[in-house]
Amino acid sequence: MNMKKQILSFLFLLSLVFSVSAQVKETRKVDEFENTNCDDYRARMDNLLIEVNNFPNAKGYVFVYEGKLKQRIYDKNGKPKGIKYVSPEVGTAKELIGYLKNHLLFRNYPSDKIVFIEAGFREKLAVELWIVPNEVNSPKPTPTLKKIKQRKQTCKPFGFCGEM
Predict the structure, then answer these.
(1) pTM of the entire predicted model
(2) Which of 30, 73, 91, 122 could form a disulfide with 67 if both were Cys (CB 3.0 to 4.6 A apart)?
(3) What is the residue range of the signal peptide feature (predicted)?
């Protein structure tokens, strides 16, 4: 009987250690990236959702900064030739946030666990993913520009990444 109590005590202590270690204690940037392809946006969001799931005492924060967009250049035969940066259309950050919110719906993920913020302007479009404990102040956006040159928005029948 004494051995059984020792094993149960050990398992209880082990569960306490794991439950305490599974609590995020400070704000941490999970990822930061420029504009990318749609599958990569989804994969990076999935990684944030996993992080938030692992730490029930935390929320995820997504900062989207308006900025120039990376665009591939191809030669007349369709071979990649290089990359150029083009001015974004007005509302690109808002559109990207809508796309990422739709991904939460697709994953049936509770929308109250992720906070989306249009974070201002940077030289290039940027996305930051953060995990923030509930009892800690959220990180502040860090725009590097007050304004950027933007193109007039054109009609997009399918929205960001072809979504309606």
Answers:
(1) 0.79
(2) 122
(3) 1-22
Residue type (1 letter), 157: P
Name residue, tokens 């304004």: 147
CATH code of residue 53? 3.30.1330
Tokens 């990076």: give the residue.
44
For residue 103, the enclosing domain spans 24-159
DSSP the chain: -HHHHHHHHHHHHHHHHHHHHTS--S-EEEEEE-S--HHHHHHHHHHHHHHHHH-TTEEEEEEEEEEEEEEEEE-TTS-EEEEEEEPPBTTHHHHHHHHHHHHHHHTT--GGGEEEEEEEEEEE-EEEEEEEETTSPPPPP--SBS----BPPPP-SS-GGG--
One digit per residue, the tens of pLDDT, for the chain of length 164 reads 565 555 544 444 445 444 444 566 789 999 999 988 888 999 999 999 999 999 989 999 999 999 998 888 999 998 989 999 988 888 889 989 999 999 999 999 999 999 999 999 999 999 999 999 998 999 999 999 998 888 887 655 445 566 54
Structural domain contains residue 4: no
How many domains are there within the chain?
Answer: 1
